[in-house]
């Protein structure tokens, strides 16, 4: 069930404050827009956003990186940050609050609006609304808080057949023989232009996702692919022959376009998955000993070509095979746990800390070091947003008082507490 938030007018004003303050150097006519964005974010949190309002909010969100970062910050659980900041102000005198507000306001009209609002509010409301400004204006005292590390984002590298390399950090529009290739908002699309192809040779592209990245891809046959951090996919720009063959390193979720006469094959060195049309997740990182296939719907055939063994999977089944000795097991699982990453969530259920940290290291682009082996086998369960600040993720694990984390640059040191 989707979590609902009760957002009072006071809290809605707090959302507006953060949006408007982020653009404090802009003109007064942007105040109305800031109020509107705050209202739309509140509606989205409560599941009351209309389709038209959703389009408007998404346009604002992707207008620039500053808006996108702010949107993620406010959408996680804004009330948590709000009340945490409020607690930090309990010791601050009201006279200091008024002084900070007056000295930080940059525009006279904006000052008058805030003053009129605060003039008739109760003292606790004064403290609450002032939170954002005070936290950012009062010098921070040195603490032992973990250094800030941001989550991953949409980023990828496209390598074309002739050696051309394109960084997919901005809009790209390409034309190839019988194809249009473009990308928007972290999604690369290959689309047939309905023209007759004059090229007989198959051309291949590769998309590479670095640590701390993710990207979506739609192939020329309509197959949709979600690619996780530290992954690579090699694929033909147009399919021909008896099968649709792609090669994977890393993790991807496939929603394969149905074609009973044209099987879709995912190849991972000596292993392959063969389907006609289905949805499934594959975890096949080179630095892990197992290849894990999780079937959401349809039917797939997993084959170990080196040992000439194969297995058929049905929905909600998972197949794990050891790359070194061929040992395998098939189990019935909750597929949501293994596919949640593509929907912006990090889910782990009774999972070893070492395995959790491997996943986190790819997404947050950090190096992990265990100071003792005992901590590797501690088990944890959790479900949080994939765009959570790294500090919050480690704090959640640290609440168990089982382990201690320390960070230097992008290295995470972990030790078991007695």
TrEMBL record:
One of its GO terms (molecular function) is sigma factor antagonist activity. Keywords: Membrane, Transmembrane, Transmembrane helix. The chain crosses the membrane at residues 117-135. Residues 209-301 form the FecR protein domain. Residues 345-414 form the Protein FecR C-terminal domain. It comes from the Bacteria. The keyword Ribosomal protein does not apply. PANTHER family: PERIPLASMIC SIGNAL SENSOR AND SIGMA FACTOR ACTIVATOR FECR-RELATED, PROTEIN FECR. This is FecR family protein.
